Amino acid sequence: MHYSLDKAEKYAVIKLHEQKLNTLISAELKSELLIINSQGYNNIILDLSDTQFCDSSGLSAVLVGNRVCRNANGAFVITGLSEPIKKLISISQLEQVLVITPTVTDAIDMITTDEIEKP
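Above: the chain sequence. Below: its structure as tokens.
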């Protein structure tokens, strides 16, 4: 799996450098999300702007990231979605479950605003 990881104080951004988020890389992505979370990053941004296709196993990896961040009282944000991935999320009725922003900057703004508002 090809990706880049950018860690900041309040969040980590993982940018997937793959055309397809499928069975071949979903297990590795799940592992990486769990490792990042175990390192104390409760807020994770997954940038899929280079990714054009996602199957059910890829969607499963996204849901793992969402679950581990929520369980840690953090936020999991996906960004840079292509039309086919947006359609998959819509068909799966996950728009209300997942936090989606158009850009990484929007995701960072949302996370930092949420961090300020937390007691």
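Residues 23-38 form the longest helix (16 residues).
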